[in-house]
Write a structure and sequence with these properties.
Elements (H helix, E strand, L loop, with lengths): L1 E6 L7 H14 L4 E6 L1 H4 L6 H17 L8 E4 L5 H9 L5 H5 L2 H9 L5 H16 L4 E3 L5 H18 L7 E3 L34 H9 L16 H14 L3 H8 L4 H27 L2 H29 L6
Parallel strand pairs: 1-2, 2-3, 4-5
Helix pairs in contact: 3-12, 4-7, 4-13, 7-8, 9-12, 10-11, 10-12
The structure holds tryptophanyl-5'AMP.
The site of tryptophanyl-5'AMP has 27 residues, from strand 1, helix 1 and helix 7.
């Protein structure tokens, strides 16, 4: 089985990325041949700083390894090192509808926040489809916010296969049962995100323990005092999910233990669980990030493996579409 996922080197990685991303990557790498991609080409679709892109690419590689990916068995690489991604994106543009791209929620939301809306932001989901399809991926572990993009990737694969003959595996998205959408601690109706959401509501994987405790203590909760999930209690439900993710327990067992504990006690307990989760990740991250030579070497190993895996599919695409090949 082939497994693929990607993560953008923009902003500092968050507990949301851990829940929908890193945690699932480390688990799914055991299930088959896995590819995890630092999608640097996606990072340029909104206003960005070139110096920061460079640093964040190395930061993110370190974080992928610190959260459990093993670069010897799993292919961890940067998108721009494998030119097939940019080529596939152009070719797939032939089977992607303009109207479909215009309906993407993330395009609409992010476009609204930009003064200058780059055409790359509009075409972003085509590049993402190429990422996935080039590796003949069977499963794509992601958070809930990527669901629409994944469905579009499936559509693109199907349209290509029916227009030009069968080339692509049609991938399935894999979402965590709990924690597929971690919400902001300050606004439980908004996603916790690397960029755009409030600092105070966002837990970064490199936050100091006292910052984490402070953020949890000031987390917005709901009326009532029951620590139990309910539709009209988005704040408490989010905290229960976070507790479940941080400790590997089910939300039900968290509710059983803390149901009557009161919000204050519970918020502190969640903070402590997250501090404990993050502490070893931070230590490992700091060690890895200190050795840039080794990071570049490992990126090179990943790039070679990814190029070899992507090349046959790209060739089949060109051939199926009628290009003269030499
Ligand atoms: P990105 O970089 O925004 O996020 C990386 C992963 O983290 C998940 N995630 C969350 N999960 C739960 N709760 C949250 N609050 C939360 N915030 C982020 C995301 O769902 C994602 O799995 N377009 C993608 C990158 C990409 C990609 C791909 C993914 C490019 N090509 C191919 C899969 C396959 C993105 O922007 O992820």
């Amino acid at each position: 089985m082939r497994i693929f996922s990607g993560i953008k080197p923009t902003g500092d990685t968050t507990l949301g990325n851990y829940s929908g991303g890193f945690r699932q990557y480390a688990a799914t790498q055991e299930q088959g041949e896995a590819f995890f991609c630092i999608v640097d080409l996606h990072a340029i679709t909104v206003e960005y700083d070139p110096v920061a892109l460079h640093e964040r690419t190395l930061d993110l590689f370190s974080m992928l390894v610190a959260t459990g990916l093993d670069p010897d068995r799993t292919t961890v690489f940067a998108q721009s090192h494998v030119t097939a991604h940019a080529e596939a994106s152009w070719l797939l543009g032939a089977v992607t509808g303009y109207g479909q791209l215009g309906r993407m929620t993330q395009f609409k939301e992010k476009g609204d926040q930009q003064e200058f809306v780059a055409s790359a932001l509009f075409n972003y989901p085509v590049l993402m489809a190429g990422d996935i399809l080039l590796y003949q991926s069977d499963i794509v572990p992601i958070g809930d916010d990527q669901r629409q993009h994944l469905e579009l990737s499936r559509d693109i694969a199907e349209r290509f296969n029916s227009r030009f003959g069968h080339v692509f595996t049609v991938p399935d998205g894999v979402y965590p049962e709990v924690g597929a959408r971690i919400m902001s601690l300050q606004d439980p109706l908004a996603k916790m995100g690397k960029t755009g959401s409030s600092e105070q509501g966002t837990i970064y994987l490199l936050d100091e323990p006292d910052a984490i405790m402070r953020k949890f203590k000031s987390a917005v909760t709901d009326s009532g005092r029951d620590v139990r999930r309910a539709e009209d209690k988005p704040g408490v439900s989010n905290l229960i999910d976070i507790m479940a993710v941080a400790t590997g327990r089910t939300p039900e067992s968290v509710e059983e233990e803390y149901g009557d504990a009161g919000y204050g006690t519970f918020k502190e307990a969640v903070g402590e669980a997250v501090v404990e989760l993050i502490a070893p990740i931070r230590t490992r991250y700091d060690e890895l990030r200190a050795d840039e030579g080794e990071l570049l070497r490992l990126l090179g190993v990943g790039a070679d493996k990814a190029r070899a895996a992507a090349a046959p599919t790209l060739e089949r695409m060109y051939e199926a579409m009628g290009f003269v090949r030499l």
